[in-house]
Amino acid sequence: MYSNQAMFKRIKQNSKEFGFGNDTVGKSQRILNKDGSYNLNRVGLSVFDRFSFFHWMINTKWSTFFLLVIAGFFLSSALFAFVYDICLGAEHFHGIESTTSAGNYWELFFFSAQTSTTVGYGRINPATNIASFIAVLDALSGVLYFAIVTGLLYGRFSKPVPKIIFSEKGVIAPYKDGSAVMFRIGNKLNQQLQNAQVRLIVSLIADMDGQPVRQFYELDLERKEIIYFASSWTIVHAIDDKSPFFQMSQTDFENSEPEFVMQLKVYDSSYSQDTFTNTSYRKEEIIWNAKFEKILVSTDSFSYIDFTKFNDINHISNT
To answer: Residue 238 — pLDDT band, cuts 50, 70, 90?
Structure first.
């Protein structure tokens, strides 16, 4: 861990509480995952207390979402078909043409699917009051199921998802008369992103009176805001006498177990609201004596970004 007491005291004076706490248990673990989620498990709560089905369905992959929606529909039809065929019997329905038990079940399965979706082709229909009552419950469950699915679809489509790409690595590169920590972000789509604001926070572990202590420090940036986020943006923190990395060697840097947490806030005109996205970089994702490859190409008539080189890094010789 980093043991420069004078530097640590200066960091502590400027440190802030960002909600992660100062406990250094698991100090080599990420605070924030690369996708921006918290690297934190919750224990002592029941599954129902710590799990939100709505939140999970809103954020899960589209393939998983549709798989569960289809599976839920078929499971519902299968359960009602079981009630119709096994609990009641085929004699409670008119129009069944099958003469086998398996055939009766499948005909009632399709009857349930048609009832829940209000299609109702009409060949099969309930012949008794109890069968009609179960069919009413089947129809009601179908209406509720599709109302829930519609709400989830709306939530997924209306959820602001900024299409921002973050560089896989950060670099410590020459900057003016010294050096700087740099990260690169880019706008992948042609959508209008405006008033982009970035915050860069670093977590450092230092030795204070023989005890490891984690401190968080908000880094000064060359530019914290741009009006139009049209292409790419290199986030630059100059390592000067105000920086926690001032006069810090690469060994000291690695011993301090740094983690850079980046938050980007941007106004997305597609959703007419601000959107937020986060990521983080650990020490092993910071490349020393390197710089990003140029990706913005301009001609007399137009400019373009070469995203094939977005993560390309050029190493700089120390000689």
So the answer is: very high
The H or E element that residue 108 is part of is helix 101-116
Burial 5-41 (b: 16+ CB within 10 A, else e): eebbebbeeebeeeebeeebeeeeebbbeeebeeeee
User: What is 10-62 written as a DSSP string?
Assistant: HHHHH----SS-S--TTTTS-SB-TTS-B-----SS-HHHH--HHHHHHHS-H
Which residues lie below 8 Å from residue 105, measured CB to CB, with a gap of 6+? 81, 82, 85
Distance (Å, whole) CA 261 – CA 311? 18
Place of tokens 């009552």: 133
For residues 305 and 85, which has the higher predicted lDDT (pLDDT)? 85
Tokens of residue 187, six digits:
């706008």
Task: At 257, list the tokens.
Answer: 């177990």
The least confident of 152-156, 209-213, 225-229 is: 209-213
In the chain the domains, ranked by start, together with CATH numbers, are: 5-40+161-315 (2.60.40.1400), 54-158 (1.10.287.70)
Contacts of 86 (CB under 8 A, 6+ apart): none
- Report the candidate in 37, 21, 94, 109 with the shortest Cα–Cα distance to residue 278: 37
Contact predicate 297/231, CB 8 Å: no
**pTM above threshold 0.70:** yes
Both tokens of 188, joined, read 């992948």
Whether 51 has a pLDDT exceeding 90, the answer reads no
Residue 30 has pLDDT above 80, yes or no: no
Counted residue by residue, the chain has a size of: 319
